[in-house]
Design brief:
This is Molecular chaperone. The chain contains three helices and seven strands. By secondary structure, it is of the alpha+beta class. It has two domains: about 30 residues, no CATH class; about 100 residues, Immunoglobulin-like (Sandwich), CATH 2.60.40. It has a four-stranded antiparallel sheet with strand order 1-2-7-6, with no helix packed on it.
């Protein structure tokens, strides 16, 4: 296990405790299962797509939830019916086990849409920075008036 000394950050940055918690969460995420496999794509400057291979799962078996800055994708198969338990496999390479995968979203990243096609789940996201957070230029000698 790697340890990272963050003390230089604490001397240089205000609010770096948030960065430390993100690094800690990332190190915990490395210990997660690799099932199901997924891709993260950068579609445009502020547009992203997570594509997850969910073979054997239907739309009803998969739930997608966003809470605070965490995207959680859960797949739960309904209890197996009698026909499925009677099947005999010579080789079973398609894993249909339950899963939960969590992704830490950056600030202002919003989930736009989700779609499932050909055994792949696509989740589209976009970073939408509010006007109040965008940089603005201040003229020298000007006064900013507060809105009352």
């Amino acid at each position: 296990m790697r340890t990272i000394d963050l003390s230089p950050l604490y001397r240089s940055f205000i609010g770096s405790d948030h960065l430390a918690s993100l690094i800690d969460a990332a190190s915990r995420a490395e210990k997660q299962s690799t099932y199901p496999p997924y891709n993260i794509e950068l579609l445009d400057d502020d547009k992203y797509r997570v594509t997850m291979a969910v073979a054997g799962f239907s739309k009803e078996d998969v739930t997608i939830e966003v809470q605070e800055n965490t995207l959680t994708i859960t797949g739960k198969k309904a209890t197996e019916d009698k026909e499925a338990t009677e099947r005999k496999f010579l080789h079973k390479g398609i894993s249909e086990r339950n899963f939960e995968r969590k992704f830490q979203l950056g600030d202002h990243v919003k989930v736009l849409a989700a779609d499932m096609e050909n055994g792949l789940l696509h989740i589209d996201m976009e970073r939408v920075i509010p006007e109040a957070k965008k940089p603005r230029q201040i003229e020298i000698g000007s006064r900013l008036l507060e809105n009352n």
